[in-house]
Amino acid sequence: METAELIEIVDREGRLLADTAAKAGVDAPVPTCPDWRVRDLLSHLGRVHSWAARFVGEGLTDPVRPSVEPAPADAELVPWYRETHRRLVETLTEADPEVECFTFLPGPAPLAFWARRQAHETAIHRVDAESAAGMDFTPVDPAFAADGIDELLSGLHSLERSRLRTDTPRTLRFRATDQDAVWTVWVSDGVPRTERNDDGVADYELSGPVADLYLALWNRLPHSALSGKGDLELAALWRERGAI
């Protein structure tokens, strides 16, 4: 996806998240993140937005950790999130397309990386806010969902810190039924490997519309909401170790 499209998604998803969080109330539990309440969601995402904006806005080429400063009091939390989100969108929009800064995944350019990462971060947490408010999830654009699956499987799970490991090599397959898109993941005691193909037999396959597949792989929908076949223990493995 184009960087400008992703920045628009960051903007739209963050606004929707803030409105939904205000509706739910900051003390509402978040069913999709059982240990969290809405205040935790806003605090986390606001810090992540500020962290990302620093890399792009200040051109930081070395890694830094997100701020650990306390979030505002409950009454100020939604306005604080709106402001940190606004600053992120402004920073991404006004950045030099050739800006050099730290990233943690390969990509065409640092600005493209941060726009993509923040778009998916915000979209997934918007779903969390909707779960807290007891709302149906706002539909995810299929092209964006496919991009998010690519980022998750070929990007985030290509890192050494991925916990998706097995003592015995196994194969997972994720198939979009509304797109010509299939991902095969080879899991072992090393870093997982993903390819866009359906070569060979998979030990477990999960299939469904790409937007549902996106949410299921981020553990925001149960695998039972889609069609799964094969070794269901691998579905449990994903739920336990596939989280980022």
Verbal overview:
The protein is α+β, with helices and mostly antiparallel strands and 244 residues long. The protein has 2 domains: 3-132, Four Helix Bundle (Hemerythrin (Met), subunit A) (Up-down Bundle); 147-241, Nonspecific Lipid-transfer Protein, Chain A, CATH 3.30.1050. 48% of the residues lie in helices and 11% in strands. The chain is built from 7 helices and 5 strands; from the N terminus they run H-H-H-H-H-E-E-E-E-H-E-H. The protein has helices spanning 3-24, 38-58, 74-94, 110-132, 142-155, 210-217, 233-241; strands at 170-176, 181-187, 193-195, 204-208, 227-230. It has a 5-stranded mixed beta sheet with strand order 3-2-1-4-5. Helix 2 runs antiparallel to helix 4 (110-132). The longest helix has 23 residues, at 110-132. The two termini are 22 Å apart.
